[in-house]
Amino acid sequence: MGELIVETSGLTKEFGEVTALRDVSIALSGPSIIGLIGRNASGKTTLLRHIVGLQLPTRGQARTFGVPTRRLGHEQLARIGVVPQLPNFIGWMSVREQLRYLSAFYPRWDLDRQSFLLDLLDLDARSEVGGLSAGNAQKVAIVAALCRHPDLILLDEPVSMLDPIVRDSFLKLLLDLVQEDNATIVISSHVLHDIESTVDWIVCLDAGTLAANAALDDLKDQYAEWRVLARSRDLPARFEGPFVLRHTVVNPRAARLIVRAAEADRLAFQQTHDVDVEVAPLNLQGLFPILVDSRRH
User: What CATH number is given for 219-296 in this structure?
Assistant: First the structure.
């Protein structure tokens, strides 16, 4: 594993009577691309804000680059690029003027990358920032975050407002950044089918608690869909077992199960119930409802 980039221990954040994060403990190393997923109001944005010190824990700890986030200084913050859901820029400036202003704060600012990104994202540098659509304002935030060659990039729903062609190009760019800059990227998104081909690690929050924190490939190995076909008699109304998470009846002779099971479980299941079982992998879209329900199983 590479450098430990983000670490939280028992991280809890309360806003009055509302608990946004509850006892979240993670350790994220890089370079890698981490998918931060969860339902709306699950605590994703709150976690990102803790990583950069914009919010401080009610209890527990958060460290970035080994430094408690309440003590992050210019040296650490200069290594972080953030693309918020709702960027806030100086409205009367043009895109070019806004980027020139920001570049003065970052000695590693890359003008060649800036030009490349403006072209990739189809941004007119002459446009006034205050008149941009929400999607184009987010594109400016992407350029501003990536031109400084950050070691840690935090993206809060960055693809939701991009058109499909630009979205695909941007996600491919993230893979290049991991190689070129040895960057660690945390991408919070609800567009799961888009990020699946990009991320290699999943952090899943559910109602402020940690529902999953694992390599995507490992999660895919743990869960599967079983397509069950009867051999000689109708199937029972329901299959019971500690590894059966969901059961859908297709017809009296066929069913679909979502399972967390090993190959030995499948072989024993076939023999016990006199059925054939076809195993189908789950994509991230299929895994998500299982992960957010995992604490109930």
Answer: 3.30.70
